[in-house]
């Protein structure tokens, strides 16, 4: 799991993150994230433009910040069969946000962090698979300019 700005790999953190290497606009980063998720069997089932919500509700200014609710239907079904209330921990959120100097950070929840409070051994296999797929998504977005 890449920790932006430090260039080191972290173990067991609550997120998997990278700095977007696509070189495009914020909208391009969001579109590329949605595409990378789709290529890894995730559907975006919700999109929250946090900066717009805060602007509308509080007249607050926030750099571009979008939360994508990503769902892999197969993982969701397996989770819910194992623990019916695991839906409280779903979907897996992916954040696209502008950081210092206009860079764009893309972060996904570490599925192990999401299921940790449930302490259900049966959910660990799903979390392991989901973590591998989300890691591929994040790594792809960090390498986009090298393709």
Automatic annotation (TrEMBL):
Xref: InterPro entries: DUF302, TT1751-like_sf, UCP021774
Span of domain DUF302: 48-111
Cross-referenced Pfam families: DUF302
Gene3D superfamilies per record: TT1751-like domain
Protein name stated in the entry: DUF302 domain-containing protein
Origin species: Pararhodospirillum photometricum DSM 122
């Amino acid at each position: 799991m890449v920790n932006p700005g430090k260039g080191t790999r972290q173990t067991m953190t609550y997120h998997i993150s990278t700095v977007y290497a696509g070189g495009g606009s914020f909208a391009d980063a969001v579109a590329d994230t949605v595409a990378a998720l789709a290529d890894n069997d995730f559907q975006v089932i919700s999109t929250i433009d946090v900066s717009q919500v805060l602007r509308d509700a509080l007249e607050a200014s926030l750099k571009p910040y979008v939360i994508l609710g990503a769902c892999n239907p197969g993982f969701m079904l397996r989770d819910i069969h194992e623990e019916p209330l695991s839906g409280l921990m779903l979907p897996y959120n992916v954040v696209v946000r502008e950081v210092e100097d206009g860079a764009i950070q893309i972060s996904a929840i570490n599925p192990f962090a999401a299921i940790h409070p449930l302490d259900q051994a049966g959910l660990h296999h799903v979390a392991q698979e989901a973590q591998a797929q989300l890691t591929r998504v994040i790594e792809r977005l960090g390498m986009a300019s090298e393709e």
